[in-house]
Amino acid sequence: DNFIMLQAFMAVIVCYSFPLIGDLPLFNSRGFIYMLVLHIGITEALYYSIHRLFHSEYLFSRYHSLHHASAVPQSFT
């Protein structure tokens, strides 16, 4: 659920930050390249930054350690 919520949150931010994004051709190679660049440049960078934040002493001990203690590790926890 966290991953899906992050993707929805990022989509809203991108749509409001770049109002012309609605004019991008989403179903051809040019649109695919634009979306790939936006995804890698924004979403992945934010996801990495948030995950690094979870490794801070405060958040790790109170929340993120549960993810690392899981018997079945999942990237979405």
TrEMBL record:
Keywords associated with the record: Membrane, Transmembrane, Transmembrane helix
Transmembrane feature ranges: 6-24, 31-50
InterPro entries noted in UniProt: Sterol_Desaturase_Related
UniProt keyword rRNA-binding present: no
PANTHER family: STEROL DESATURASE
Full protein name: Fatty acid hydroxylase domain-containing protein
